[in-house]
Each structure stands twice: as C-alpha cells, then as structure tokens.
Amino acid sequence: MAQGLRSRPVDALVPLACLTLLAACADDPTAPRQQTAPRQQTAQPKPEPRAVDVAAIAADELVELVLDECHRRLRDRMQRVTATVAQGDDRSTVFAVLPDRVRVQRPDGRFLLRDGGVHRLDEQALDEQDERRVRQLAFAVDAAAFGPLHRAASCARVDDVTFDVTTRDGATWRLRLRDGTLLPAELRCGERAATFVDYRCTNDTWVARALDVMGLGHVDVTFDSADVTWSDEFFAPPSARAPGGDLRMTAPGAQVDAKNTTPKRERREATRYVVLPDPGDWPARVDAYRPVYTELLRQRQKIAGFALFWRQDGAAWLGVPFRQRPGEAALDVPDGWTIRDEPAGFELNVHPADGDLAARAAAGERALREELQRRGLTAKGPITTQPWLHLHRGAPSADDLAAPTVCVAVAIE
C-alpha cells in the first residue's frame, strides 16, 4: 500500500438516497417556553478531504483507491441510478444504466438515449437542441457517478496528480485530482469534460454534487437512488415498442422490476474462482479473502463479484470469482492456489427478501431445490450463496448481516 494511506472500518450499507437528506431539530411545541437570550449560531466547519501523498501511489492502484475513498459504500451500485440535474429552476430527472442507456424526463418532453441514438418518447419531433441536451445530461450524471472510473481497465500516470484512465470500451479519460487528495478535480475525454466544483460528504463517501460540464454549464446533481433495476422495455426505443406500449416515467427511485424473489433462469458468464476452505467465521474469512483479492488486483484480473459460499463433499468452501480483463495477461496462478473454471451457461437464481443472512440462504436453497424438481432440471454443481458483502474492507457488522442482499444460485444443464 502506498504511503499516506490507511484502512478504515466499513459502516453498514445504506440507501444512496440517505445522502440527500438533511436532519433538522425543532423545539417541542407543547413544552412551556421560557424567555432566554438568543443563542449565537455557530457555523459548522466544512469537512476537509483526507490528505494523501498521491505522487507515492502506483498508477495501477490509483483508480481502486479513488473509488474506495469516495464511493466506499457505493461500490457496484453506481451503474443503475436515478438523479436530478438542476440548473437554477430548470430540472431534469435522469434514469440511467450508465453510460449509454438513459431516459430523461423534463417539463418539455421525455427522451431516450440508447445505442448511440436519441429519441423523443412523445409525439413531437426531436430537434438538435434536444438531442444535444440529452447527451450532455447523460454525461453529467455519468461524470458525477465517476462512471469512467467504475469502468476502468487500466491507468497510467501523466504527472503527480494527473492520470490517463482507459475504460473497457477503449476510451481514454484524463483524470486530474485535487492537490494532495484522492478527490477528482476533472474528467476529460475529447469534447466531454467535467470539472468537480463541490462534493457532498458523509463519514466515508464523497459524492459529487456540483459540476461544470462542457457545453452545459454549471449543474447540481442529486442522486435519488442507486442499484435500481428496470425491465428491458423501460429503455426500448420507440420503434421496438408495441402500439400504445410506452412505459411512463416512474418517480425517482421507483423500481419497475426489483430483484427476483422467486427462482429465475438466467444466462451466466464464464467465470473462474479461487477456491478456499471456508474458515467459518467472518474475521477469519476476511483474513483468507484479502490476500487473494490483493493478488488478483495486482495481476490486473477483474474481480467478478462478491465472495460465494457452498458445501460440497462434506466440506465448506469460499470462492473468489474473477475473470481475465480484455487485453491483459491470464492469471499466473500462485503456488498453493486452487482454481475452479465455470463455463458460460445457465443458472437458476433467487434473491430472498426476508430474514437475516442465514435465513435468506436457507430460504433460497429451499426455493431452488423445489424449482429444480418442479421443472425437472438437473443441477450442474452445488448451490451457492453470495451475500453482497465487501470482505476486502473488513468483517461485516451485525447490521450488514441482519438484512443483506443475497443471491442464491445453481448452475443447470
């Protein structure tokens, strides 16, 4: 780890909408009032970002450290968002699967960005100004969400605070940090550029809220919700919709299609796993997981999801999923590692909605076994439980385990 950095305990995950709430205190109107001298209001000091020696950080560690510093509780949750973009009294609601599936609702119309094209979702004609504004709003939200960093494939240093970040689609973004911190100051790629003016700070997140966007000007961005799931039709272009089949815009944060609480058949990508004996308790699991996670990142492998747990042949196992990044070398397997390769195929999965981790895991396994029998399907391996827990950040708290998102899955023939 580079000098000037330190680890911090992780708090329980909270909804992103909580970042937009302000707590207010009021006197009890029923209590007797006494005449007191007015109290002097003391301005609360504005939080300052942590000082970091950026020049001492290796380029291949930089993106991970920026995201951990700024989006610690929001990792893996910022691709599917709803946001409000304000310019004075002008407001747009943006529903996005970043970076290129975006619906925009404005007082003057409803719009869709999909597959590089912009469409109106009403009876009016699309003009150049509308198209340009939709593209600019989509970029403003993507920049505020640090989208290019979440999609990063590689990073190269330009100078002490400037880096070239190449995303998985081959685009190269120039990232400049604020001096002495891990907070982005600017993101730029060709004619797309955003300067980060202000941040909303919590205990362990720094979320961009004010930006200057090239071609759009100054905007205030409020993320209303994250990790939202919509049906595929929600982002279908007009030509793909049945007559009268347009989906109306939902309120910010509404989930058109929540995570499936009944078993669902889905395609799964080919994935490799580092297989470890499950130590059985969370501190020991963290100790086993962290060295594997660190080595995979060092070798430029893509972490392909949260750790999985299963039982097989009378033993309990922990799996760390990963994939080879395009253009990067395959994993040079360290001595003593056990690798399991799972080809692409199909699976049944379910996300139980009630109870703590143990209850959800048990309910998911029951549901999958019943579904396998009902459909006459054959399992190709063990049933796995994948709680959405960031083990590289430390042992989960009691709150993390009380009601986590859990995916229970089994490969099928």
Structure description:
The structure is a single chain. This protein has 413 residues and is of the alpha+beta class. The protein folds into 2 domains: 55-240, outer membrane lipoprotein receptor (LolB), chain A, CATH 2.50.20; 264-412, Multidrug-efflux Transporter 1 Regulator Bmrr, Chain A, CATH 3.20.80.10. It is 18% helix and 33% strand. The protein contains 6 helices and 21 strands. The strands form 3 sheets. A 12-stranded antiparallel beta sheet has the order 5-4-3-2-1-12-11-10-9-8-7-6. Strands 14, 15, 16, 17 and 18 form a 5-stranded antiparallel beta sheet that branches. It has a 4-stranded antiparallel beta sheet with strand order 13-19-21-20, with helices on one face. The radius of gyration is 24 Å and the shape is globular. Residues 1-39 and 241-258 have low confidence and may be disordered.
Summary?
With 413 residues, the chain is of the alpha+beta class. The protein has helices spanning 59-70, 128-144, 147-150, 282-298, 357-375, 398-402; strands at residues 80-87, 90-97, 101-106, 109-114, 117-120, 152-159, 162-167, 172-177, 184-189, 192-201, 206-213, 217-226, 264-268, 271-277, 301-303, 308-312, 315-324, 338-342, 345-350, 384-387, 406-412.
CATH architecture label of the largest domain: Clam
- Beta percentage is 25-35%
Count all strands and give the number: 21
Number of domains: 2
Q: Strand order within the widest sheet?
A: 5-4-3-2-1-12-11-10-9-8-7-6
Evaluate the radius of gyration: 24 Å
Top-tier CATH class of the largest domain: Mainly Beta
How much is the average pLDDT? Answer: 84
- What sort of overall outline do the alpha carbons produce when their principal axes are compared? globular
How would you characterize the largest beta sheet?
A: 12 strands, antiparallel
CATH fold call of the largest domain: outer membrane lipoprotein receptor (LolB), chain A
First-residue to last-residue Cα separation: 43 Å
Q: What fraction, in percent, of the residue positions are helical?
A: 10-25%
